[in-house]
């Protein structure tokens, strides 16, 4: 009996495995057609300061297959494996730049917009120049953009020179998912970054778990010592928010405030009219 049960579960495992592989292969195939097919969209999640004023927004990529959204955590790794992330990443960056220009033309006061960048993209020769060209063609200053790079991917020292190119081109750099990648202090000190994003893993239990609270407080103290800003992601409750404000975090992003939104919804609910800019106002009144 044991033997047949064993064989049964083995077969079950094989079926599950082939099913999962088939889905991955199918997803990968569909991903190849996604960019030419115009299937990607960007949504924007507001970042607020301690006064709940919008001071930033993160652009997040969305993709659906047969009407069902596929989480970025599933398709981004596939895109990285296949190299598709390179053209996709350029599309993301260009779309975000155009969106900034469009919001401005509509008369909104546009905060700094953060764009996620994969290290596969960073390794492309001439990456900083390519981004600079795209931003300039869209009429957007590099200083209005932040490039988010995941901590675990930044440990490779060969990337420091590229990070410096990006900084010299005028972009601000942010270390995403900070705390998950074991950066040494020496490396952190040498990286030309201007902000750290505390990973939502540490924010989630900050109210109940003294260890997570200590980690968040330490990241804030470290950032202060190095002159970096701290952004907290995944803020879902008032209690989490209040603790993070007390620790000195400057920016907050999470469902307590808003999920990632379509560009027009972000503008309507989270941006303010650029009253100081008569030209932008005129455009807005016309429409
Ligand atoms: P990330 O850059 O760390 O983005 C934050 C993730 O947290 C987003 O997931 C966001 O929707 C989610 N989030 C926001 N507020 C909350 C909250 O209060 N609670 C919880 N539990 N989650 C919250 P999303 O959009 O699914 O993206 C997942 C990851 O995929 C991103 O993590 C980023 O690493 C990657 N990604 C997304 N868009 C792009 C892109 O354009 N390029 C690249 N290279 N990676 C991207
Ligand atoms: Mg990010
Ligand atoms: Mg993050
Ligand atoms: Mg994250």
From TrEMBL:
Entry keyword Transmembrane helix: yes
Domain EAL stretches: 24-274
UniProt keywords, alphabetically: Membrane, Transmembrane, Transmembrane helix
Keyword Membrane in annotation: yes
GO molecular function terms listed in the Swiss-Prot or TrEMBL record: cyclic-guanylate-specific phosphodiesterase activity
Protein's name according to its UniProt entry: GGDEF-domain containing protein
Residue window of the full protein shown: 490 to 776 of 776
